[in-house]
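Loading example: each entry is read as three labelled lines plus one structure line.
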Amino acid sequence: MGIFTTRASTALREAKGDLRIENVTKRFADFVAVDDLSLVVPRGSFFALLGPSGCGKTTTLRMVAGLEQPTAGKVLIGDTDLTGSRPYERPVNTVFQSYALFPHLTVRENVAFGPKRRGLPDALKLADEALALVEMGHLAQRKPAMMSGGQQQRVAVARALVNRPEVLLLDEPLGALDLKLRRQMQVELKRIQTEVGLTFIHVTHDQEEAMTMADTVAVMNKGQIEQMGAPAELYDLPTTTFVANFLGQANMVEAKQVGLDGDRPVYEAFGHRWWVPRHRSSVPAGEPAAYGIRPEKLRLNHERPALGGSSAAAGPGVLRDVSFTGVSTQYLVDLPGLGTWGVFERGRWIVRRRGVARSRRICCSCRGWPGW
Amino acid sequence: MAWLVMFFVVPMVQLFLVSLQSDYPGFPGYYYQDVNVANYARALTDFAPHFGRSMLFAGLATFFAFVLGYPLAYAMAFKAGRWRGVMMICVIAPFFTSFILRTIAWRQILSDEGWIASTLNAINLLPGGRITETWVAVVAGLTYNFLPFMVLPIYSSLERANPTVIEAGGDLYANGFTTFRTVTLPMSLPGVLAGTLLTFIPAAGDYVNAELLGSDVSTKMVGNVIESQFFRVLGGFPDAAALSFTLMALILALVFAYTRKFGTEELL
Amino acid sequence: MSASAVSPMTRVRYWIADRWVMTSALLVLAYLALPVVYTLVFSFNNYTKSNIAWNPVGSPTLKHWLDPCGPPGICEALVTSLQVGAVSTLVATVLGTMIAFALVRHDFIGRGPTNLLVFVPMATPEIVLGASLLTIFVQGFPSFQLGFFSIVIAHIMFCVSFVVVTVKARLQSLDPRMEEAAADLYADSRSAFVRVTLPLVLPGIVSAAMLSFSLSFDDFIITNFVSGDVSTFPKFVYVSYLRGIPAQANVIGFSLFLIAVLLTIGGQVVGNLRTKKG
């Protein structure tokens, strides 16, 4: 019996390949945390699970780690089925939210913990190498309580990395850090990932963090994946309202497809018409749809440009608020029927130059058809 | 677990059974199992004054322990700074000198020849002329012995409280006393609750203080009666058992009413 | 001279307000310490008949400190107390820790009653515990001789509850992610327990053991009920009170106090050094 379990777990530990989540469901009492989720994370990629709290992203991660077992479905690495195996049998390591460093052990002992449990002879040497990778070698003798959040974070990364897992899981690892440190660690983690070439799965609710770091982002909502793809792709062409709102800001309005102009669908709402390129339109004709456009694609104008042709427009409306953020100036415009839209323009004095001022009727317009 | 069942539940049941036993007529010290409710009747009539005194003394001791203990706990939690550890040791350390020894020390400090009694007598402030052998001494002794049980829970609940919350009270125009009454005291309530129980329960069952600091008649508590029924009165077993059981029931009832009133279930 | 908005009267009030808490705290501490000081002082008393009045002739004297075992029975009682304390602490700690783990980690039938059962002995006056144990020893097992073992059994009984409560509190405050992290780092459940859980709970177990030793050592009421002819240190003091307590009792009492204080301070210093070293 003992022999078989040992052999089985060794086989599990040596599993290699893409991480595959197949039709996984996790139910807690009467609450469905993860709902029939399927996902493939290619080996060596930096993958982000993005979503609001309670969307099931952490539960998904814990099922990959083996800390929870799925109610239904399978978790595989390559062709090896990990479902039902224990956390310590899996080639998967976790950087826990707020780190979970062992307070009774020094930094070095913390990092050497994994290799020692696996009975590797040079555990301490491996630990020192891992600490060097995260630039924490000089604090190896410290206890975790004597370190700052950023330092603990690096140690937590080293403690997981030292095991060279097939998949490294990061559960909101930067959540407890201040903004500046978080930016710095984002770059750092990305560097480490490139350097070691392992599969990283990063769970976060911070869209900017996910977009900065990951090759592929999956946006989760209510236990399901809403949309998955490269960050730019998701941003440019969100397929659901949820994704559009969750990633950055969006001006959205419920619209109806009213016809085709050539091969371009035309959408209409409250007397406005928008042309959307065929490949950007995901809703069949006649169905209720939402038209959306990013604030930074819009420009403010005194006159409403002619409809059709090569531009889209909305308005006229009333300028309600102007705020300068450094990179851009953000305008809020009340558009009758459409609600309040945001327009981000670069530079500070555009408003004055173009003759638009507060409380005056102005229009939003743009070139091309960047909406969806 | 089996241990607790064996050495707590079984003895309790046995105690209950004993409390219902009767004497073999003519053979004092020998009993047979019976449902002799008279034991309880005696416990509640003959010894009613002792129960009353137990509750009264324990209540007074709890009150004084609270009055004395709260400032100490408060000072330890918020004012002591680096002296906190030292104060902590000062609170706990007397435990390690046998409590009998300390109680006897009190008897001698308060004795008729002692300086406290003689000073008070010299200025005619002592009506009866003495401190020992009065209820004052017994209550003082009880207060003293169980004071740490009051201080420590209050301290730990105050320590857990966030001092900025108290500062916020001051910031929102509450003066010192109002802040204390509306913010600090409610936050330490679980500690106060635990502290009062930890003081009241053992004080109510204590007989050492009454024995060493009190007089023969007017300060005897239930504990003294139980003790003497067990050890000094031939055939006193069932009576003593009935007394013990009544005492426990009384205390449990009081504790239950008390926790109900203040609505905290998490004791200790 | 700048005019202050705070009047001198108010300032006096603030001054008092800032200090009265500390002052009363120190007075209460003095109240707590008084008998201990008294015990120490009278350990140097050169008394003739009873150690109640201070004898100016020949005091202070070191003779009681040099002959702590002088009065018959005192050191036997002390040794009994230490033995009882050691044995019951050991058993109560092991047993209590196991119960605490069971209560926190396993959801077994009868967990509620068990919790209650652990709590009730603490909410019961000692005298009732003593009385009930006495009845069971005397009537339940008539052949059982009251003495060392009955004391030990009684002490274990009330110590277990305190151990359970202390260890349980520590276990409950333990971050569950510690054990998850251990499992994630290839520790199976046994080695996760040995390497992570146990070291993290150990301070709680140690303080529980210390608590139960001091409870056991200082217990008089329960001991008095179940001890038969065997004498423990508190019982010795109580019994000899009628004849007059020998000053050696003060010597031993104060020494124990001193040892306990030194151990506590020593423990804290070592703890501080350890955290500083890192």
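The CA atoms of residues 14 and 52 of chain A lie 34 Å apart.
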